[in-house]
């Protein structure tokens, strides 16, 4: 069981119109064998809540329930729904820990302890990441002027019993699958419809290409970082192996032999280099993961959500055009005209409402994206420099020791 | 020596040639470092003569031949039924040390090999990622961000170069150092085996001498004067042999001790210089890395 308290202060979301504050964060998390329990902490001056500050415990499925409820709500068709956080996945890390346990007999105690520490650090990193992703989801919802007022969201934040949200059963999963198939087929049809509005036409082309390229970059960054982690693991094993080489029993006579002392001294300096380098390399890989890979993964999901918005708008447009055609037909035949008129008005209203909010949402998406990339790329560069300078100091120090010892 | 077909434009053949060149160079450097070998006329001829006679009977000196010789000595040692009575524990202890070290170096070599492979993999993956990032930069419609992403793609490209150079240094400096010493320690073990063999020869001569003496005693008792003369001659011969072999054994013992100390001195020097060379390449690499990221940082900050 692992528990982590996030002490970072979160940005406060203030609704300037109603002067109400809503601040959400995940203050604690507990990892049990096959599930993670997040403690969702809320601070709010909104009148809807019974108290100004409270906490509840939620699991991953309940986040998914909340996300799906937004997606299925027709009222929110015109917004980019914040993407759902990915499922906590500790399988790879657990597998590695298990393999280590099995291979315990084949390595020295020092090697085993060192590798165990590394794997535990990795587990902790994955844990922190999943907590961060769940938190980002909630913060995005809390920051959205409309979604923050959603009733389900308030229930999610406040209701201190289990929401009894079970995972989808087989039938529901199958329904979801078919819904997605229909959506992608529809998507192809709808994508072919040229938009009269230049803004949306440009956005459609842009998002399609951008999404695909982000997907590609995300997959490739993952692969690159995995190689980096593998290399860091090797450096760890080299450090252990060098240490074993350096601490071999030598004959008493030779312990006083200058030549051997000199040899082992060089070896020890070398061990030092690898020991510290490994820590640095592991941090480099972790930081690249956080600042680059996670950024790309997040914008992969966000760009998909934006595409989904455009899809919903196109669907509404198609419905509107069909309603127009139906109205013309009804007027020509002079049958069910009132019905057709009402239907056409509804479709028109829906389409215009979606278009209006979609435009703002897409502009906001751009602003958010540019800001997020700027922040992460700057932090990435600063961290790379910090680690490289650390590496440099280490190497200069050790080379100095060796040179001075001729 | 293994025979390998080498093609003209094969990239792996370029690597192979470089590896061989470096290995042969190290081998020659070790040979000329050795005070006794430097005096050897064959070595001198090898270094000086324009044309060397075709190597027809180098079977004994070839790697395979040399290995056979060592293996014969080891077999002889293994077949010894009488354990050597060491008055001086130095040899036993030193041999144990050498064997342990060889084992450790083998283990270390496996991990270093793994590092070389992972770095090569990292190289490939970084190059692919750089291209993908460049494409993403092209799609991005915010101009400053687009430019920053293209710059980042270039940085990653440069990193790929760095990784490639680091992988080469991992291999040529570190991994090859280890494999050289694994083989050299094998050769050191070979020396110890040769000493054991000398001891065995001495012991066998002693037991033969003993048998001859017993035979002489029998002849004395049987009173056969003509055969007695022959027996006496044989005894003298074997007495001389025993003395010779004992002297050989002592001489070899002293030579092994001297050689081991010289070897350890060389090894310490070698490791130190290679370690320093390796650390230096890592240092250069980090300095260049710093330059790349320092150039990129203002671009990232310029995103608006």
TrEMBL record, chain A:
Involved in several stages of intracellular trafficking. This is Sorting nexin. The chain crosses the membrane at residues 258-276. The keyword Membrane applies. The lineage of its organism: Eukaryota, Metazoa, Chordata, Craniata, Vertebrata. It comes from Amphilophus citrinellus (Midas cichlid). PROSITE patterns: PX (PS50195). Pfam families: PX (PF00787), Vps5 (PF09325). One of its GO terms (cellular component) is cytosol.
From TrEMBL, chain B:
PROSITE patterns: PX. It is found in: Cell projection, Lamellipodium; Early endosome membrane. It holds the Pfam family Vps5. Residues 1-54 form the PX domain. Keywords: Acetylation, Cell projection, Endosome, Membrane, Phosphoprotein, Protein transport, Transport. Transmembrane segments: none annotated. GO terms for biological process: early endosome to Golgi transport; protein transport. Belongs to the sorting nexin family. This is Sorting nexin 1. It comes from Amphilophus citrinellus.
């Amino acid at each position: 069981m692992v528990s982590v308290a996030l002490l970072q202060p979160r940005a406060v979301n203030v609704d300037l119109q109603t002067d109400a504050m809503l601040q959400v964060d995940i203050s604690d998390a507990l990892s049990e064998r096959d599930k993670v329990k997040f403690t969702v902490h809320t601070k709010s001056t909104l009148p809807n809540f019974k108290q100004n500050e409270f906490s509840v415990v939620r699991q991953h499925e309940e986040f998914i329930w909340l996300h799906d409820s937004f997606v299925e709500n027709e009222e929110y068709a015109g917004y980019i729904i914040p993407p759902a956080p990915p499922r906590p996945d500790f399988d790879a890390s657990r597998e590695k820990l298990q393999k280590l346990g099995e291979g315990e007999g084949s390595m020295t105690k020092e090697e085993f302890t060192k590798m165990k520490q590394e794997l535990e650090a990795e587990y902790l990193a994955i844990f922190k990441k999943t907590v961060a992703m769940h938190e980002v989801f909630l913060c995005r919802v809390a920051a959205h002027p409309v979604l923050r007022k959603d009733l389900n969201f308030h229930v999610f934040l406040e209701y201190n019993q289990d929401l009894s949200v079970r995972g989808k059963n087989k039938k529901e999963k199958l329904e979801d699958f078919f819904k997605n198939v229909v959506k992608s087929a529809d998507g192809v049809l709808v994508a072919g419809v040229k938009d009269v509005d230049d803004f949306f036409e440009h956005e459609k082309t842009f998002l399609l290409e951008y999404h695909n390229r982000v997907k590609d970059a995300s997959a490739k960054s993952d692969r690159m970082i995995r190689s980096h982690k593998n290399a860091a693991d090797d450096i760890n094993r080299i450090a252990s192996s060098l240490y074993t080489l350096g601490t071999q029993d030598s004959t008493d006579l030779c312990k006083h032999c200058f030549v051997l002392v000199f040899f082992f001294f060089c070896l020890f300096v070398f061990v030092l280099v690898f020991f510290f380098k490994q820590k640095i390399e592991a941090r480099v890989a972790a930081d690249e993961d956080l600042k680059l890979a996670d950024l790309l993964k997040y914008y992969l999901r966000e760009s998909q959500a934006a595409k989904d918005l455009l899809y919903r708008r196109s669907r509404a447009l198609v419905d509107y055009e069909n309603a127009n055609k139906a109205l013309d037909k009804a007027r020509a035949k002079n049958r069910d005209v009132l019905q057709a008129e009402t239907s056409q008005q509804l479709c028109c209203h829906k389409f215009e409402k979606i278009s209006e909010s979609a435009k703002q949402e897409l502009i906001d998406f751009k602003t958010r994206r540019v800001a997020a990339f700027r922040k992460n790329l700057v932090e990435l560069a600063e961290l790379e420099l910090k680690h490289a300078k650390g590496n440099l100091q280490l190497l200069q120090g050790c080379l100095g020791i060796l040179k001075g010892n001729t | 020596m293994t025979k390998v077909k080498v093609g003209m434009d094969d990239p792996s053949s370029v690597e192979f040639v470089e590896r061989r060149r470096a290995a042969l160079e190290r081998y020659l450097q070790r040979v000329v470092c050795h005070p006794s070998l430097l005096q050897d006329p064959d070595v001198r001829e090898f270094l000086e003569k324009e044309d060397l006679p075709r190597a027809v009977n180098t079977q004994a000196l070839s790697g395979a031949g040399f290995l056979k010789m060592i293996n014969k000595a080891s077999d002889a040692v293994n077949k010894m039924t009488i354990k050597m009575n060491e008055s001086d524990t130095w040899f036993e202890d030193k041999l144990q040390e050498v064997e342990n070290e060889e084992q450790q170096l083998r283990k270390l070599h496996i991990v270093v090999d793994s590092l070389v492979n992972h770095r090569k993999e990292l190289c490939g993956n970084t190059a692919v990622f750089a291209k993908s990032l460049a494409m993403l930069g092209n799609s991005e419609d915010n101009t400053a961000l687009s430019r920053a992403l293209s710059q980042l793609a270039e940085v990653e490209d440069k990193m790929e170069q760095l990784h490639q150079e680091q992988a080469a240094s991992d291999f040529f400096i570190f991994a090859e150092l280890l494999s050289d010493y694994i083989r050299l320690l094998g050769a050191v073990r070979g020396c110890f085996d040769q000493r054991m063999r000398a001891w065995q020869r001495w012991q066998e001569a002693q037991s033969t001498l003993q048998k001859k003496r017993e035979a002489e005693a029998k002849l004395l008792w049987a009173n056969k004067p003509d055969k007695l003369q022959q027996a006496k001659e044989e005894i003298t011969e074997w007495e001389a042999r025993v003395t010779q072999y004992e002297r050989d054994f002592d001489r070899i013992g002293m030579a092994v001790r001297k050689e081991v100390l010289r070897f350890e001195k060389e090894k310490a020097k070698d490791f130190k210089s290679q370690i320093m060379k390796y650390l230096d390449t890592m240092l250069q690499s980090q300095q260049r890395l710093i330059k790349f990221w320092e150039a990129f940082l203002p671009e990232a900050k310029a995103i608006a």
